[in-house]
TrEMBL record:
Name of the gene encoding the protein in the UniProt record: adk
UniProt record similarity statement: Belongs to the adenylate kinase family.
Pathways per UniProt: Purine metabolism; AMP biosynthesis via salvage pathway; AMP from ADP: step 1/1
Enzyme class, first EC level, given as a word: transferase
Organism: Streptomyces arboris
Protein function: Catalyzes the reversible transfer of the terminal phosphate group between ATP and AMP. Plays an important role in cellular energy homeostasis and in adenine nucleotide metabolism.
Catalytic activity: AMP + ATP = 2 ADP
HAMAP family: Adenylate_kinase_Adk
Record protein name field: Adenylate kinase
Gene Ontology CC annotations of this record: cytoplasm
Keyword Transferase: yes
Chain positions recorded as AMP binding sites: T31, R36, L57, L58, V59, G85, F86, P87, R88, Q92, R161, R172
Origin superkingdom: Bacteria
Length: 214
C-alpha cells in the first residue's frame, strides 16, 4: 500500500505517520529524516540540502525530489510506504506522479488531515519545551505543568520556540494554503483523497485513518 499523509502544521502528521506505517507494516518516509540521513553520510544530495537548511532556506524541489527518488528505489519500499512531508507543492506532486508511473505504480490513498486554523494556532502556540530536555513537552491548555514555567520531570525552565509563536504559526498556515493545499486539489481530481478530522485523541485519529483506507 502506498499512502500520502497531508495536512496543515499542528495537525499531527508526524505522530500519525509513525503509527499508521507501523500498523500497516510499511515504510514511513519523512523528508526531514531523509535530509538528516543524507547530510550525515555526506552525499551530494545531503551537502546540497545542508547548504540551504543552514541558510534557513527551503530545500529546492530538485534536491527534495532526488532524495525521494533514491529512497523509493530501495527494496524495502516494495511492500509499500507512507509519505510524510512530501510533496509540499504542486511541482513535487507532479514529479512524484512521474516517479511512480516510471515504475508502473500509483498512490493508493491520500489522507488529508483537517483541523480548523484556530485549533492549529491553539495547539502550536500553547506548546512549551524544557530547556534542559526538549523531549519534555507541555501545553498550557492540554497538559500544563504543575508549576507554570517549570518542567515537572526535571525542574528545567519551560519556553516557547520562536516557530511556535502565534504570528509565526499564522505565516506557516498561509504558506500551507498557498503551496500545499493545491496538492490536495491535484489528488482530489484523481479520486484519491479522503479528508479526516485531526481533532481528538491520537488513537481516535488513527482509527479514522485506518477506516478510510479500509
Amino acid at each position: 500500500m502506498r499512502i500520502l499523509l497531508i495536512g496543515p502544521p499542528g495537525a499531527g502528521k508526524g505522530t500519525q505517520a509513525v503509527r499508521l506505517a507501523a500498523h500497516l507494516s510499511i515504510q514511513h518516509i519523512s523528508t526531514g529524516d531523509l535530509f538528516r540521513e543524507h547530510i550525515a553520510h555526506g552525499t551530494e544530495l545531503g551537502q546540497n540540502a545542508h547548504t540551504h537548511i543552514g541558510a534557513g532556506l527551503l530545500v529546492p524541489d530538485e534536491v527534495t525530489i532526488g532524495v525521494i527518488k533514491e529512497r523509493l528505489a530501495r527494496p524495502d519500499t516494495e511492500r509499500g510506504f507512507l509519505l510524510d512531508g512530501f510533496p509540499r507543492n504542486l511541482a513535487q506532486a507532479q514529479a512524484l506522479d512521474g516517479l511512480l508511473a516510471d515504475s508502473k505504480l500509483r498512490l493508493d490513498a491520500v489522507l488529508d488531515l483537517e483541523l480548523p486554523e484556530d485549533q492549529v494556532v491553539r495547539r502550536i502556540a500553547g506548546r512549551r519545551l524544557c530547556r534542559q530536555n526538549h523531549e519534555h513537552i507541555f501545553h498550557v491548555g492540554y497538559s500544563p505543568p504543575e508549576v507554570a514555567g517549570i518542567c515537572d520531570l526535571c525542574g528545567g525552565e519551560l519556553y516557547q520556540r520562536e516557530d511556535d509563536r502565534e504570528a509565526t504559526v499564522r505565516k506557516r498556515l498561509e504558506v500551507y494554503r498557498n503551496e500545499t493545499a493545491p496538492v490536495v486539489d491535484h489528488y482530489q481530481a484523481q479520486g484519491l483523497v479522503t479528508t479526516i478530522s485531526a481533532h481528538g485523541q491520537v488513537h481516535e485519529v488513527l482509527h479514522r485513518a485506518l477506516d478510510a483506507i479500509g
